[in-house]
């Protein structure tokens, strides 16, 4: 009986040692960081700020290289109306036609109305880039303008899946031909 009691005590001690060692091994393993949605959102905002700051610097360098005196909207669109027309002002739901040349900041022409044809669209129908629509709303028939459209107002992170690369800033040279 005494031997049985001693054996139980020994087994209990082994069990206790086993449990303690198991706990220590689990504690010594690196724990995965658990991120909550606020942390993820904050990190994404920080990355976006860095990307936006970098893109804005590239745009400013481009403008300075050509010595353009451009205006900026609150959204980040830069524009320069370099020839004043005397026609009808663009408004919401206007059907417009433009001649255009679209290029990247490195000077590579992507699209051109002399090759691709006149572009026509209706303002407010989301048929073109937000930045192009915003710029066109500043014009009247006969105006010629340059727009620098940051990627967030153009094709964003994906590009147009054709010729415009991801995160591309676009430079538009446009002539407003008609407003209906």
Indicate the CATH class. Answer: Alpha Beta
The largest sheet is: 7 strands, antiparallel
Q: Say what the CATH topology is.
A: Chitinase A, domain 3
Classification by helices and strands: alpha+beta
Quote the distance from N terminus to C terminus.
106 Å
Provide the gyration radius in Å: 31 Å
Helix share of residues?
A: 25-40%
Count of β-strands: 7
User: Which of globular, elongated, flat, extended, rod-shaped describes the shape?
Assistant: globular
CATH architecture: Roll
Outline:
The protein has helices at residues 2-28, 37-66, 113-116, 130-136; strands at residues 71-72, 78-83, 95-104, 109-112, 119-122, 144-149, 170-179. The chain has 180 residues and is α+β, with helices and mostly antiparallel strands. The protein has one domain: Chitinase A, domain 3, CATH 3.10.50.
